[in-house]
Amino acid sequence: MDAPASLAALLELSTQVVEAVVAGPGGVEAASPDDAERAGVLAAAGAALLDAATPVRPGSPAVERVVVETETATVIVV
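and the corresponding structure tokens:
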């Protein structure tokens, strides 16, 4: 399944998803809403979360998933 189809499936399955970005080494592959600037900001924030979490477990493989929960929102980066 390609990035746009994966994103569409996620949005169809979960009514709680407000914004979502599929990004890879080449940049943003799909985003909702379809706003390139916002998608870039979200992708950069996700990459920064993964990078910041990696030193928490020195000597372990790189962190592949980060979940941040607040009273009003949840951010999941995989």
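(Above: one complete record from the training split.) The chain is about 35% helix and 25% strand.
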